[in-house]
Write a structure and sequence with these properties.
This is DUF3391 domain-containing protein. The chain is an alpha+beta fold and 406 residues long. It contains 15 helices and nine strands. Strand 5 and strand 6 form a beta hairpin.
Length: 406
Amino acid sequence: MLKKVDSSQLKVGMYIHDLSCDWMTHPFVRNRFLLTSEDEIRKIINAGIHDVVIDNAKGMDVQDAPTLDEAQAATEREIVEIVAKAPVITRVSLGEEMQRAVQIRHQASTLVRTVMQDARLGKAIELDQVQPVVQNITESILRNPGALVGLLRIKNKDDYTFLHSVSVCTLLVAFCRSRGIDAETTHQAGLGGLLHDTGKALVPDAILNKPGPLTDEEFAIIKRHPQDGYNILLQSPEVGPIPLDITLHHHERRDGSGYPNKQANDEISELAQMAAIVDVYDAITADRCYHKGMPAAAALRKIYEWSKFHFNPKFAQEFMRCVGIYPVGTMVMLESGRLGVVIEPHETNLLAPKVNVFFNTKQNLYIKPETIDLSRGLGFGGGDKIVGHESPSKWNVDPMRFLTLA
């Protein structure tokens, strides 16, 4: 049986099933292993990992610890309460914005690729090329945040590094807008999001794209990228303090377990704390060659759990309201047994979005796509409800094909 336990309860002989942290945080070569020494327990605690999942069928037990299902159900209830009511404003439909979003995605990822190549060659960042791209992303978010955010859920291992930067920029701009941050500060935060991983240009591709966990030595090289990125951006005097701060500090954690400066609590700026949340959320929801991306709802649960120690709880909750428990592009199971992809959040009830249904799980076949509004009753374009999120790989379907209906 899987149980959630506090790291202080760990003992030699317990079997670690999940270290309950994002893949770039822990210092272990593998995620699942039998604890064989006190040194391993110290490494877990020193890495800022505050709770883990153990398997008592493979090792020692903690009698009074909640099961993983119980812990997740409790967290889920709290998240639903936080996220259910959040205003959403869109100016144009998803279909209208999607074509522009496709062009912006391509333009932005091409730019990040160029920035990385220039950084590798020792060239300074040309900010006049970056500014218009951030502006285009911001304008798309203002028209319909779901289009670009939903589109950026699609990544493959070859373009992950570049699209991750575009996603962080996009989500950070949306996060700033939802918090009512002024336009100029939002723009500077967007610049920081787009450039935050510039230092990875100096990380060897063999480490950056390694199809497996990193060794301690490789992990140490990866951990240099915030400082390297900061140094690269310093070569461009027109880069302001906000992008520099986000680049240097997006891996800091409020309990002091982050890097490169082990800043803690309010030593970390608000925008760097926001960028940290966005960075982790996008990383854990993306498919990698060695890491299967989580559904958005599961990732929000992780963010919420980690906010007890790593993130500002207030910012984590505001981010959850910003993206919603079922963001555009999320595949969901409906009570009727149909699968659908979320295409538009409801203006006030994020648990009742518009969904394009396209697959019948009871008959295991595709059905004629249809848009249903889950906020409406039966006979009024609704009459169904979400029972949970689903993994596309489980059903071998591609929900993104049905993000818009022709």
